[in-house]
């Protein structure tokens, strides 16, 4: 009985408060850090690096084939029957040219796997950053539309009072209701788009679907780097590095095919007993390239290398054109956003307050006030769209130049 009063307070302290301590505040840097480590494509690319390292370790061994043991024996029938036998062990030495070619191939394969990991990160970071920027833009759009909805609701309330007082017509009341309904629908649509985009971001980052996430960050609108500086670092783009590594892998295959045209040397040692005498033998085993002269390996390697040289050159040209195109687009889109920011935005707040005062003074009617408010909202949303376009274009430019890592 003495502890009965404790239970309500204990239950209150132990009960998990909804949302408390559970919401993750996500910035762009945190989102990119999560993407670099937790995404499925990155994990798979890391596994391929480990596979390439295992193959490289095997290729670096001096002995590639297991030793061969040969045992022969038989009963010699003569005046004095006795058992003769022979046992020998042979080991291929694996020539230095073949070992060098295989090491070069596995080294190039490892470099290709590492470049593919960086390319997977580049593409993932581009997707994460793009989705993050879209979430921020959707939140800004929803905030604009929320203020528009509040103004429309206030205008509707004022029009209803005027209508009841006989100072407004039924047409004006219906127009105010229509404007308020449109503002509420626009806000709801923007919030739904933001929720859907946020869900896509959580899926890219591998977050729990039920985890509450708040995204914070501005829309970046920085001027672009000089195009020549971007082109100077284009060879560091991971997909081009992967192609170059694959080309070196094909060239190593050509070297291996050339090494297969030369004889392979091994050693052999054995013991035998013949007619009661013990015999110890040692010798050299030479594998003659009669049936397999490496024609297939050489032909496949040469064909693959030729195709990869052409693909690398074409990809390099395409990447350069891509960088130049995105750079030009970014310059123009930043100019469009700057034009709205410097010319149109500074007058919007004054226009809205002046229009409301003119409406209250009877200088303009309800339709003119609604038209002015619509123009103001469309201008704000247009500026937001220009910022979003510039931000997405900058991301595409950095991704195309290989600067997004």
Features:
405 residues, single chain, 68% helix, alpha+beta, two-stranded parallel sheet, 9 helices, four-stranded antiparallel β-sheet, Outer membrane efflux proteins (OEP)
Question: Can you walk through the features of this model?
Answer:
This protein has one domain: Outer membrane efflux proteins (OEP) (Up-down Bundle). It has nine helices and six strands. It has helices spanning 6-14, 28-38, 40-59, 96-164, 170-205, 227-232, 238-259, 295-360, 366-400, and strands at residues 24-26, 68-76, 82-92, 213-215, 264-274, 277-287. Strand 5 (264-274) and strand 6 (277-287) form a beta hairpin. The two termini are 65 Å apart.
Count of domains: 1
Q: Write out the CATH superfamily name.
A: Outer membrane efflux proteins (OEP)
The total count of strands amounts to 6
- Terminal residue distance: 65 Å
Low-confidence segments:
1-21
Element pattern in H and E = HEHHEEHHEHHEEHH
What is the fold-level CATH name, i.e. the topology? Answer: Outer membrane efflux proteins (OEP)
Write down the Rg: 38 Å
**Mean of pLDDT:** 82
- What is the annotated CATH architecture? Up-down Bundle
Helix content: 55-70%
CATH class: Mainly Alpha
| Biggest pleated sheet | 4 strands, antiparallel
With strands numbered from the N-terminus, the spatial order across the biggest sheet is: 2-3-5-6
Number of helices: 9
Shape: elongated
Beta content: 5-15%
């Amino acid at each position: 009985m003495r502890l009965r009063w404790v239970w309500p307070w204990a239950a209150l302290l132990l009960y998990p408060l909804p949302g408390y301590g559970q919401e993750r505040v996500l910035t762009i840097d945190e989102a990119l850090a999560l993407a670099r480590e937790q995404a499925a494509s990155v994990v798979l690319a890391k596994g391929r690096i480990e596979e390439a390292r295992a193959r490289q370790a095997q290729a670096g061994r001096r002995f590639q084939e297991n030793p061969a043991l040969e045992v022969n024996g038989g009963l010699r029938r003569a005046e004095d029957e006795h058992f003769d036998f022979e046992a020998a062990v042979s080991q291929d030495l694996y020539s230095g040219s073949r070992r060098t070619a295989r090491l070069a191939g596995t080294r190039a394969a490892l470099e290709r796997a590492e470049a593919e990991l960086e390319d997977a990160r580049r593409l993932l970071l581009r997707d994460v950053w793009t989705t993050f920027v879209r979430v921020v833009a959707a939140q800004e759009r929803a905030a604009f539309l929320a203020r528009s909805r509040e103004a429309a609701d206030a205008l509707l309330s004022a029009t209803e009072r005027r209508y009841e007082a006989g100072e407004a017509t039924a047409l004006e009341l219906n127009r105010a209701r229509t404007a308020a309904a449109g503002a509420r629908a626009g806000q709801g649509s923007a919030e739904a788009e933001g929720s859907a985009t946020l869900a896509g971001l959580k899926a890219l980052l591998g977050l729990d679907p039920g985890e509450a996430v708040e995204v914070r960050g501005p829309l970046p609108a920085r001027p672009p780097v000089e195009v020549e500086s971007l082109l100077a670092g284009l060879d560091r783009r991971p997909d081009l590095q992967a192609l170059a590594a694959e080309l070196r892998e094909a060239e190593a295959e050509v070297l291996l095919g050339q090494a297969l045209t030369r004889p392979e040397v091994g050693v052999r040692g054995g013991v035998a007993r013949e007619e009661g005498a013990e015999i110890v033998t040692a010798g050299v085993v030479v594998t003659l390239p009669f049936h397999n002269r490496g024609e297939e390996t050489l032909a496949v390697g040469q064909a693959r290398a030729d195709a990869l040289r052409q693909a690398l050159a074409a990809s390099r040209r395409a990447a350069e054109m891509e960088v130049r195109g995105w750079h030009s687009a970014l310059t123009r889109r930043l100019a469009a956003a700057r034009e709205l920011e410097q010319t149109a935005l500074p007058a919007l707040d004054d226009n809205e307050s002046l229009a409301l005062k003119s409406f209250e003074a009877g200088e303009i009617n309800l339709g003119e006030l609604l038209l002015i408010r619509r123009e103001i909202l469309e201008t704000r949303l247009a500026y937001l769209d220009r910022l979003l376009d510039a931000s997405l274009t900058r991301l595409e430019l950095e991704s195309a130049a290989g600067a997004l890592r």
